[in-house]
Design brief:
Elements lengths: L2 E12 L2 E12 L3 E5 L6 H8 L7 E6 L2 E2 L9 H4 L4 E4 L11 H12 L4 H14 L15 H15 L3 E5 L7 H16 L4 E4 L3 H7 L2 E6 L2 E6 L9 H17 L1
Parallel strand pairs: 3-8, 3-9, 6-7, 7-8
Antiparallel strand pairs: 1-2, 1-4, 4-5, 9-10
Helix pairs in contact: 3-4, 3-5, 4-5, 5-6
Bound molecules: adenosine-5'-diphosphate and magnesium ion.
Adenosine-5'-diphosphate binds next to α1.
């Protein structure tokens, strides 16, 4: 198995406050990593550092054996052939003034310098894949939350980055719309798309993850395949218990 991501001793501060403390882990190509943990534990910041959306204060992020420099580089053509990461956000981040198809084309034209025709073909292919081909000329405001998020996923798939990151992709959705998005993510996991997913869907994480990381207070508390079924650390146990309790309480 090929190692696609290596994070070594990553530290991140915001205004002198340490947010991520000495984070180290690795991910193989084709694997799905799920990150769980309480609010404020640094999950989003970690994803943002891996996506080069935040600078880092110490440590390394190595993607596909290339040291990722912690400032935003101007894309050149050569680099643009192979985008390291793409990201799906909680609140979709679609461009409201572009149709579904244009949203998916725009990313490719910008990031990969694809021509219009090729970008359009790939956009339609990806819309078919997520089952929204018939919505290609719709504007985001005329889609449901679940549909918007599926479009955001299609936009990333069109780029076909080495790693696809998702930050709580279903947290902004009404409960009845969560399933359709999880279904798409599950398919991708089955196809061995390399993914890092921050989620509070504990049962889902358990089902699809090759590896789970539990974070608390800026640190990895424990990681592995078995974190949800067989947590070893007291903090992990408490988190999972609270979760189950809350889940039961909602029913
Ligand atoms: P999570 O995603 O696990 O809820 P975050 O990564 O969003 O956690 O936040 C971790 C900590 O970093 C929080 O205490 C948050 O207030 C702080 N933080 C996040 N972004 C910023 C920022 N841009 N400036 C200052 N503090 C931030
Ligand atoms: Mg977050």
């Amino acid at each position: 198995m090929k190692e696609i991501l290596k994070v070594e001793n990553l530290c991140k501060k915001f205004n002198k406050e340490i947010i991520l403390k000495d984070i180290s882990f690795s991910l193989n190509e084709g694997e799905t990593l799920c990150i769980i943990g309480p609010s404020g534990s640094g999950k989003s910041t970690l994803l943002r550092c891996i996506n080069n959306l935040e600078s880092i204060d110490n440590g390394k992020v190595i993607i596909d054996n290339n040291y990722l420099i912690s400032y935003v580089k101007k894309l050149n053509k050569k680099l643009a052939q192979n985008i390291n990461t793409t990201m799906v956000f909680q609140d979709f981040n679609l461009f409201p003034n572009m149709s579904v198809k244009e949203n998916i084309m725009f990313a490719q034209q910008k990031a990969l310098r694809r021509g219009k025709k090729e970008a359009e073909e790939i956009a339609i292919k990806m819309l078919k894949k997520i089952g929204l081909e018939e919505k290609q000329d719709f504007y985001p405001c005329n889609l449901s939350g679940g549909q918007k998020q599926r479009v955001a996923i299609a936009r990333c798939l069109a780029i076909n980055s080495k790693i696809l990151c998702m930050d709580e992709p279903t947290s902004a959705l009404d409960p009845e719309l969560v399933g359709e998005v999880l279904k798409v993510i599950k398919e991708l996991s089955k196809e061995n798309k390399t993914m890092i997913i921050v989620t509070h869907e504990i049962a889902f994480a358990k089902e699809i993850a090759d590896k789970i990381i539990f974070m608390d207070n800026g640190k990895i508390i424990e990681s592995g395949k078995d974190v949800i079924d067989n947590p070893k650390n007291e903090r992990t146990k408490a988190f999972l218990e609270r979760f189950n309790y809350n889940k039961e309480a909602k029913k």
